[in-house]
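Morning F.,

Quick status update on the modeling queue. The single chain you submitted on Monday has been processed. Sequence for confirmation:
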Amino acid sequence: MRLLEKLFRPRPPIRDPEGLADFVDAQSAFIAQKGIYEYSRARAGHYAKVLFAEEGFAKSVERARWQAFPLGLAMVGEMVEGVLRPHVGAERRAVHHGTVLIVLSVFDRYPVPPSIGEAGWQDARRELEHRLDLAGGHAPKRVMDIPNPLAESYFAMMPIHEKLRGRDFDTTRNYLRVSLCNIHDEFVARADVAALRKALITGEAA
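Structure tokens below.
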């Protein structure tokens, strides 16, 4: 009974910067990593277990998931800001700025991945901040359209030789779109928009 209660217990509302950061962190990691693992397993077929046990391939997967994490942060961050924007009125800039700070704070939770290196990791942070700034300068996109500008970069990160990828780009892009729509639905269901708006406007995100 306790197991069933745990499984079906509603997830807590997201009402403060810490809760929002944890949500962004978990969902960004999920959307970035799940696609890499599932695509690699699908391409390897019956040899997936053997392939993942190889040290060289394991290192390639590790590098790919850290490369993809900032893309996940960019997509989830833009989605969050798009959900909040209709509810913030004249405080749009403050809320956008607060959202960017939260997303960047998630990035900063992690030490430099050895597979990326200091210079590459700092470049990824600057690019993430740039993407988030651009997202705040136009009308919110449909959630399913948010991954489109990043899908090609994400697909290129797959730890499978490009000659073996075939015509899988559309499948990968659709994975990102469906996954982000599901993340959006969870955020809408859990977000305490009024509380988040107040926290972001008052600068608690900093």
